[in-house]
UniProtKB/TrEMBL annotation:
GO molecular function annotation: endonuclease activity; hydrolase activity
Coiled coil: none
Keyword set, alphabetical order: Endonuclease, Hydrolase, Nuclease, Signal
Source species of the chain: Thiolapillus brandeum
Signal peptide as annotated in the record: 1-17
Protein name: Endonuclease I
Protein family: Belongs to the EndA/NucM nuclease family.
Lineage: Bacteria, Pseudomonadati, Pseudomonadota, Gammaproteobacteria, Chromatiales
Keyword Lipid biosynthesis: no
Region (Disordered): 183-205
Membrane-spanning parts: none
């Protein structure tokens, strides 16, 4: 199902609720609707490539920076659909908007569940996008502007939900958090998500 059709289906319930997203979303579809409507109602910029998108742009979808396949393995609840049916904890994790970012769908798919890291050279995997992939080592290197946001999202997810970050990955995320501090746009975004979910990402200061 493409994103345009999905959003049209998800917008239907708002006719009965006055168009107000409710706080503390507890499932991914509710969270996804709120994510696009409330955080990006006029479009925005994708995380990895800085692509400027408009509402209902079919090339853009929502990326979980901390991949859900990592979560399903750690929780041992089965595949993603089964985890949605059987694990309240998984639903909280999957729907957390501090871990969701707009991304070009092809870049999101190419990243998959690869870890973040440093990739030698500047062989960009996509035209006009500073995003390198090392398939052998299963690492991706995002543009510098995205690194701080990625780091703070991963650290937040690990700390909030007791999820694993391998030692090398955590060290790199802590380094990126220090080297690429949040700007006012990121702090504003953090405040908006906190209003919707009831808690901020404490790494965004």
């Amino acid at each position: 199902m493409n994103r345009t059709l999905l959003l049209l289906l998800l917008l239907a319930p708002l006719a009965c609720t006055g168009g107000q997203p409710y706080p503390g979303t507890r499932n991914y579809l509710d969270s996804l609707r709120t994510f696009w409507q409330t955080l990006y109602p006029d479009g925005g910029e994708t995380l990895y490539c800085g692509y400027r998108f408009q509402p209902f742009d079919r090339k853009v979808n929502a990326e979980h920076v901390y991949p859900m396949s990592w979560v399903t393995r750690q929780l041992g609840c089965g595949d993603r659909q089964r985890c949605r049916r059987t694990s309240a904890r998984f639903n909280l994790i999957e729907s957390d908007m501090h871990n969701l970012f707009p991304a070009l769908a092809e870049v999101n798919e190419a990243r998959g569940a690869m870890a973040y890291g440093e990739v030698p050279g500047e062989r960009h995997a996509f035209e006009a996008c500073d995003f390198e992939i090392d398939h052998r080592r299963r690492r991706v290197e995002p543009r510098p502007k995205a690194r701080g946001r990625i780091a703070r999202a991963l650290l937040y997810m690990a700390d909030t939900y007791g999820l694993t970050l391998f030692k090398r990955q955590r060290r790199l995320m802590e380094e990126w958090n220090r080297r690429y501090p949040p700007d006012e746009a990121e702090r504003h975004h953090n405040r908006k998500v906190a209003q919707l979910q009831g808690r901020p990402n404490p790494y965004v200061r």
